[in-house]
């Protein structure tokens, strides 16, 4: 199994960062690799089981199902329902933590685990997923900086 982990700070409160991240269907507002995102079915993507459909810059479509959501710990997790990537069992998590004694600073912890279908491509897909996570974090930073 490939595991990608990335943590980095943001110049805002944990609540400010979480306000953006908790909008499961709003990822296109801050992630540069995603041109369009929408929630399938009923509105209100803050429920476990919600599915978001993403249109990527290269024309590919990705569908992700929310599997965990917790305002208390400021965290969520999701799995791929449909993906152009040749991976199985993809599960990602994001969590926002306060930085002790700093109200205008937080740390976002990203992780993703998956199996690749073709042996020998683990490093390639680890790099790809890490790049997407870093792009997302940088896009989030741009939004919270205003």
Automatic annotation (TrEMBL):
SUPFAM superfamilies xrefs: Bet v1-like
The organism of origin for this protein: Pseudomonas graminis
Full protein name: Polyketide cyclase / dehydrase and lipid transport
Entry-linked Gene3D superfamilies: 3.30.530.20
Superkingdom per UniProt: Bacteria
